[in-house]
Every structure is written in structure tokens, then in C-alpha cells.
Design brief:
The complex is a heterodimer of chains A (about 550) and B (about 230). Chain A is mainly alpha-helical and about 550 residues long. Chain A has one domain: Up-down Bundle (Cytochrome C Oxidase, Chain A). Chain A is about 65% helix and about 0% strand. Chain A has 17 helices and 2 strands. The termini of chain A are far apart. The C terminus of chain A is likely disordered. Chain B is of the alpha+beta class. Chain B folds into 2 domains: about 40 residues; about 130 residues, Immunoglobulin-like (Sandwich). In chain B, about 30% of the residues lie in helices and about 25% in strands. Chain B has 4 helices and 9 strands, in the order H-H-H-H-E-E-E-E-E-E-E-E-E. The chains are: A mainly alpha (about 550), B alpha+beta (about 230). The interface between A and B is large, with 96 and 94 residues.
Amino acid sequence: MRSSGLIDGLSRLGAGDKRLLKWFVVMALLSLAIGLLSGALTGIRRAGFLPVTPGLGYEILSLHGVTIFFYWLYFIQAALVLMLACAHGNGVGRLVARPLAWLALMLMITGFALSETTLAMKVPLLYDGHPKLVTGDTLLPGLFYLGYVVMSMGLFMVGTVAILSALMPKFEGDVAPWSAVTFATVAWAGLLIVSAMAGFNVFLPPLLWAFGLGPAISDYAMKWHVLFHNMHYLPLMATVIIWYVLVETMTGVRSIFGSSFSKIVFASYLILVPPTFLYHMFLDPGLSDAVRVIGSLLSLFLAIPTMLVYLIIVSSLESYARAQGGSGLFGWMRMLPWSNPAMTAIGLAAINLAIGGALSFVLIQERLAPLLSDTFFVPGYFHFLTLGTVTLTFIAALLYVIPGITASPVWRPQLLNRLPYIITFGLLVFGAAGVTAGYSGVPRRVFDIGYGGEAPVGWESLMVFVGIGAMFMSAGLGVYVYALARMLWPSPHAAGEPVLALPVVSLGSQRVGRHPAWIGPLSVLVVLGAMAVFTILGFELMQNVPLSATGGGHAHH
Amino acid sequence: MEDRNTIEKSYEPACEAHRTKYFRSVSALRTEFKMHQDIETEKPHLTTRRGFIVLCSFAVLGLYGLWAGYGAVPTGLGSAPRAMPGAMTGSGPAEDMDSHVPVEEFRRRAQAFVEANLLPDGSVRPAVADRASTAYISEPVEVYLMARQYSYWPAVLRLGKNIPYRFRIMAMDTDHGASIQFKGAAYMIRARAEHMIEKVLVFKESGEYPIFCTVYCGVGHDLMKGKIIVE
């Protein structure tokens, strides 16, 4: 087995650090299990296959949103950022201030318990916790907000511990520059801290209000969108960092563009992500024309760092593969270790990112917001990103991290290798029906989509396909959760067996300068074409609507 | 001298061997040096240059041209973005925007609007003074619409084709949406709680257009609907 930054790092971790990371992973998988179950129920309720009241449907939807968006994504990011900060590359090999990291874990678990309990007790809120929905007793909503605030405190500490752990070699006199991965991990940890602070900013005022310690909330939407925007892009940045690490682990390939270039690209996330939240608010009254146009323009820049990291990885892979004799436009891809389930997962994650990214760019054009913003287009596209890209990538990382910290081998890798295809098939069905429904005007959060016979013909059929797609997605994800959970406990057959023995190839030793790399640029071209097609479709649909509308301002009182 | 010659001759093979070895080493070094020179001067393929992939990524900014083609953004040629033909401009300045309208004041105005225009079937038809005499009415006709858990009020509006209506909409309790459903697409308005928004809408075809709430507003959200009948 070839060594790599990831595998070496995992082997250097001490027992105490492994125990801590294991608990973060346990909580991440518990959140993923609850989130996928509630997501499956939401999908099949939406399709009309589950005879429960819309009220119960919304409770299940809230459970899905809270558990996936907040707890699955934050627990897994905490585990991975801590692991990479201390153990990858020239890291010190141990967590600095580990007691603080344990405290962070405890706080995040407390937040998780508060959120899940208040949802079980029917708190009248969706996952965004809009306080205007609170009527009557404010105790339960207060505890709901407390869950988010406590979780944000834990997240803040996680980011701090990760940065301190990455800095430790510097404190100990190591003058070597950070690797691109360590640099990116520190940027990631920094954005986690920003996200935690945005969480305080949103949820602390309603928490105080709910317990009678603060005024009523009037500006919730803007604060929420700032937080939610960060929550969108943070996992996407983490995803490309994980790709960077896993590609080196599985193929030996490092960036042919140099470490400094990668650092600049990763740093650009810090500059580009925070100020581009405006596109979530295009439908909100009160934004001036100039702000909307600026919001659209800024959002165009959002894709640039992700496209660059994608090109760094794919072009490096292709160039190395060609240096090893790979040929043909696609033929070189046969040299990649496709029997490794982590490779398959990130390969399909890249395809899902292209689809989701192309669709998402329709929404950054402010003139299209009245057509699409609150429709089923939104869940139709973002599942390509949250599940198809981010979750698949984090699972790929866990296929290395869990064996590294528990010494259990990967459970049935051949079976796991098929799951990304099943999930992507489900996503294609779900996404095609969802996006079509969105263009047709199907509202996003409605369970009785027939509207007593008043809904246009075809809406209910589209929702049936949404439900079918959700079932495939949930089935694939369910097997993953089972497999990863099994690997968390030492297997009776594991003694003496190599635990990190997933298939790898070695492409990284040849000079690659003169070898071309076409697939990356061509796939970017295809994505740009798809963005243009979906945008044109939106504009054309709008022009055919028999309505003209001007205005949109509002008056505060 | 003989001895010296003899000695020199006896060393010749060894010297030759050293010379050969030396020149081979120099030759090898030269080759290696040349190879390094080649490496130093070797130009990477176009597709593996940093500038190329940066350019590829920035190509996404080309979408601006598409937006400009549809008149959705300024072109920098001194002209304001043109309104999209046959459709809506989603933003734009509110015309005659009312300011500081408290909830109760809005409720009072809406009540007066409904009472003045109520039809026997419970629907509301805003009065258009010169409906019969003009094909185009320049001053928009006022319409008040309240969105509340879980209904719109008035629930059914009867409007005229190609007449501009100034919709004044307020979400009375929590946030609501109003998605006007046309065949095959919808037009959405988002209303924040206790804020009045204004939009001038012109319906261009007759028909019945349902309105559905698009912002989750509580357990009865699915039941929240209204209707616009364009005659």
C-alpha cells in the first residue's frame, strides 16, 4: 500500500484523538440516518404514497431540514476538519487543546438533542426557525433556538481547535510552509467560525425574545440568508478539499499547477463566499434595483473557485494518466481505480456538481426569481449538491477515515461501489421531475399539491416521480449508513488484516508537462452551455407569461 | 630516459582509461545538463497552464452577455436595461410607494376596498371608471389584497384584461407568498409580515388564475389559495 498524506496522518493519530474523532463521526452518522429517513418520508408523502396529514408532513420536513442542514453537515465537517488540521501533511499529528474539542462535541450533541426533542414535541417552526410562526407559548421555540445557539458555540470551538492544531508545528519551530491541504483546512476552519458567528447573529435574538429577555424580532430574513448562504458554500469548499486529498491518496497525483496556486484558489473562497448571499433574497420586497443587479453580478463569481479546483484536480489526473500511457479523450479514465468505492463516489459527485451547478445558476439572475425562487425547482437542484456532491464526497472520506480510526476494514467494498450509481439515478429522476415542476410553478413546501382539484394537470404526476427518485436516493444512502456504522466497531475478522486496502493506482511519478488535459476544460464548457440553456428556458417561459409587472418595493411601518 | 619512457608507456593504458572515463563523465554530465535545460525550457501544454484554467473558470462571466441579451442587466452602453417584452420585470422601483402603513390602517383600507366593490357572489371587481370608453387606462386601478393564515382576502378578484392594477399586498400575521398560476408557469410575490408591497400588474389574457401561498405559514399552509378571474 502506497503511503499518502491522509493514510500517514491517520496512522500517526493517537488513541485519544481517534476516540474523539470517532464520536464526531458517530454523531454525524446518527444525524445522517435520521435525516435520510425523514427525507424519504417527506419524498413519499409529497408523492402521495404516505397517508399522513400535511401537518405531520411539515413536521417530518422540519426534522429532515434541521438534521441534514445543521447536524449531519456540521458534525461531519467537524470530524474531517479536525482530522486534516492535525494529521495531514506536515501536521503535528495530534489535536491541540483536545479538552476544548471534547467540550465542542458535548455542546454540539446538546444542541442536537434540544433540536430533535423540540421537533418531536411539535415546535411550530420549520428548520429556518422564523419567529413570526410562533404563536402562544414561547418555551418550546426558545429551546429550539437554544439548540442552534449551543450548536454554534460548539462549532466555534471546533474551528478554533482546528486552526490551533494546524498552527502548532509553527509554534514548535517548524519553518516549512503549510501544504495546500493544510492551508485549505485552515481556511475551512475559519469559515466554520464565521458560520458559527452568523448562527449567533440569527438565533441569539429570538432565543432572548422567547425567554422574555429581548425585543420582538423584525429583521430575521436577512440574517437567516447570510447564515444559510455560508452553510451552502462551506460544505462545497470542504468537498473540493476532500477531492484534493482523496485523489492524491488513491492515485498519487498532486496538482501540476503547484501548491501556491492551490492556496490562492482556496483563499478565494474566503473572499467570494460571504458577500454573495443576496441572490437568496431576490424575491424579497425592499431590495433596490441596484442591489439586485449587483447581487446577480457578484453571484457570477461564486462558481470560479470551485471550477478552478475542479480543473486543478481533473487536469492533473488526466495529464499524469497520459504520461503513463493513457490515451483517447475519455480512455485515460480507465486508468483510475474505479473499483475503489471512494473513487466512484467522488467521480459521480463531480458529475452531480456539474448538473446542480448548472441549474443553480438560473437562480442567481434576479429577473428569474419571480418565476422560480419559491418553487420545487429549488429542492430539485440542490439535492444534486447536498446529497449528490457533498454527502457522497464526505462518505468517500469516511471510507478512509473510519478504518483509520477504528481498524475495521471497509464493509463490502464491491457493494458500496454500486451505491453512487443508485443514488445518482434517484437524483436524476427526482431532479428532472422537481426542476420541471419548478418551471411549471409548483410551490416548494406544499404537501397537498392537488389544491382540491384547482392545481394544473400534471403536477401530481411530477410529484410521483419526485417520490420515486427519493426512494432510490434513500435506499442507496441507507446502505451507506449501515456500512459505515458497522465499520465503526471493530470487526471480529479484522485482526491482522490490512484495513486501508482499497484499490489504488500509482500515476504520480512521471513528468507530465507536455501532456494535454482536455476533459476538465471541455466539461466546464458543457456546464456553461447547460447554464445558458436553463437560463434561456427561464427567460423564454417568463416572456410567455401573459402578465406584465412592475414594482416590488415595500413600506416598513 | 628509457626508464622514463618505459614508465610512461606502462601508464598509458591507465591514462587512456582515465581519459575515457573523464570524457564519458563529462559527456554524461553534458547530456544530463542538456536534459535539465530542456526541462527548464520545456513549455507545458496549453491545457495544463495556470492561465488557461483561470481563463476557463472566468468564462462563467460570459453569462452576463446572455443576461444582457434579454435586457436583464445593464450593458454599459449608456442605456438602462430594457423591460422584457411580454413579461414582467421582477424588481423595479415601486410606483407611488406608500410609506409607513400600519397593519390596522391597511386592514381598514382593504375593508373599504372590498365593501365598495363586492359582488353578490362574494367576489370583488375593482371599479374602473372609464372601462367602456378607453382601450388603455393610464392610471392604475387600486387593488388591496390581504394575506393571512390561511386565506387571501378578497378570495376572488375579477379584473379586466390589459388594465393596469396597482396591487397593494400585506402579509398580516406571518410571511406569506402569492404565486399566480398561469398555464405552464407562475409569477411569485413574497410578502414579509406587516410590510406592504406594491406591484402594478397587467393581465394580458382572459382566464382563471389560481393564487397559492408559496411561503410556509403554518399547518394550514396547503389550504391557502385565492383566484384572479380576468374577464
